[in-house]
């Protein structure tokens, strides 16, 4: 029966689910990959030997054999055995087997191995590039004091879980770098032709592909992708270089955004952990990469991907949350993207308290390509394109709906969908195309195919004022919803009289105001799993970010522009590396707190940060605010979380001692009187259900500055009384910790019906330790109970 016989090479067995299925003897139920999570390892203090690791794998085989019948079958079913820090395995099981194993003593959770998403809005548009372009160089770079103080992150090791790395990028040149830090235990997998050679800058590159090979049809997958640690997509090179790429002068992108490319911590060492492929990123591979990165000795992990938080989601059934948990316990700062499902509320991802969760906002640079209408109106749009229109004059303008093919609907043609535009009518015109349904750059491509000479790409309502510096096939001006209405109105009003327009060549502008503003795609709070924990934590630049790119598949652009929380996440990872460089002994939670409490909620126009639709944003968008690296190294006070307090947190949301016992601390007991989730020492305050009565938070802050007297300043949310006791804290020395309580009560019955926001700031006159406060009467999130009861 075992068609997956020993004679078939092991790899072939791996690549074929079919193979695993057919070896499943009598069980007819569909099989799939499951992750069986057993908590953490306690390898003790002596160095871990290969024998130790083998013993762990043997124990996994043994455990599985008791459910599958025999050892051989167990070995066939296992894809990964997590042996270093994370304890568990990934195996091909049917649902009944999975359910049985979940009941096994010591099993924390059993969950299907699912695909995760990279958090980029559009990472494919570079494939469509035009070729013959010269790239002028530029100069715009002055290192500031913080960077110098942090020695540009020298010798801090940043790891990145992503699509791999393009090692030849200048951003990873090791010119001027000394020996690799001796504590580093990682390496580069360079055993194939498509391997990654390391240097003293790029010190690690590993490939985790067992999950993806087993989950997808490896026959159709690109071997250069799934069998190589190299980045064929560009995403991983982009994110890794954003976090820790070195200074590379003279970088520009089709002549725009020129200047010095660099990461947040340009002198950091970097390591790539490839877990994402054209076919997706499997949780099982992600978990393996965390296990590897922890063992290698990274200091900071940047993870621009995440799980959907569907009903049934829990922190301990998400490989990324589990991996992050073990990383943070090992002293590693973990930064992850909030997701790109905004602006819907409750769309934020990666909301475990041990993860720094990052939203995305605009910077102050834009590439403006004005649309000039025949009525004299100049609309500020954005876009990048190679060849401007031949002459500065007016060209015929048409609504794409009006140049439709006979067999297309007007609605489809308005969107410039493929096969909808009539070359006879479109030729020589500038088309107004509506955003939506297809990639933005595909619309200008369709226009070009139909003979049009330009596009005004008009936002739909949900996208508001959210603009992208995409590269377009014809001169294009991507305009806001409001400006788009003007375009359509002008066309309507002058249809008989032949409307006209011109697209001006793109120009860089810097110092745009207001900036930042929250990107509409950035996923928003509240936290759907634990609403008592405000997420995201902070925001950082994630719109039109220029960073290193892959040169795979004949790529011509070593630097490219991308948008997404994928891009903002590594900015924060870079800043975390800088803080770590200045304070090597700080815990991940201290760095987490420092980055949050020093963030800023005002824009460069000194107003509250807005959304891209120009309405005021809230902590659901930006969390504590926009990161301020120069303050984060001197936060004054930090809200620190001891490792066991993350366990207390899990108890407080419904896990019991026998579950948590496995998570590294043998003998740990949830305290009888379950600790309140409000007492988790987080640097922000969230009251989702004030209607059920007043809430008291207990918090403690640790002085990491000079001795000082801090006073509490409260900005009460509307209709809510906030009392801080005591409201003055006196610190006599560095490292001293003080507790306080924050009592939150409604000022009248039914207060805070809406979402209300305020803040608490501790200040000694020099440091401002700011925390947002969110209050609402009765938060309803469209998900089942957030309380986790036992096993999944
Ligand atoms: C990696 O492999 C390439 C080609 O296989 C080889 O040229 C290079 O020297 C190797 N680099 C290192 C650092 O081992
Ligand atoms: C309309 O017909 C053309 C061929 O004349 C075809 O290329 C196109 O795909 C069709 N479009 C739709 C929307 O069916
Ligand atoms: C333009 O005309 C179309 C169809 O006649 C209509 O649907 C649309 O609302 C008009 N748009 C504006 C901005 O006037
Ligand atoms: C913990 O929860 C599991 C699953 O719900 C249950 O089987 C176990 O008895 C519980 N343990 C304790 C100590 O309550």
TrEMBL record:
The keyword Secreted applies. SUPFAM superfamilies: PA domain (SSF52025), Subtilisin-like (SSF52743). GO terms for biological process: proteolysis; response to symbiotic bacterium; response to symbiotic fungus. InterPro entries: PA_dom_sf, PA_domain, Peptidase_S8/S53_dom, Peptidase_S8/S53_dom_sf, Peptidase_S8_Ser-AS, Peptidase_S8_subtilisin-rel, Peptidases_S8_3, S8pro/Inhibitor_I9. Residues 602-623 are annotated as: Disordered. Residues 412-486 form the PA domain. The active site is at 162 (charge relay system), 235 (charge relay system), 566 (charge relay system). Residues 679-775 form the Subtilisin-like protease fibronectin type-III domain. Residues 153-623 form the Peptidase S8/S53 domain. Pfam families: fn3_6, Inhibitor_I9, PA, Peptidase_S8. PROSITE patterns: SUBTILASE, SUBTILASE_SER. Residues 1-24 form the signal peptide. One of its GO terms (molecular function) is serine-type endopeptidase activity. GO terms for cellular component: apoplast. Its main location: secreted. Residues 33-119 form the Inhibitor I9 domain. It is found in: Secreted, Extracellular space, Apoplast. Keywords: Apoplast, Glycoprotein, Hydrolase, Protease, Secreted, Serine protease, Signal. Required for arbuscular mycorrhiza (AM) development during AM symbiosis with AM fungi (e.g. Glomeromycota intraradices). Belongs to the peptidase S8 family. This is Subtilisin-like protease.
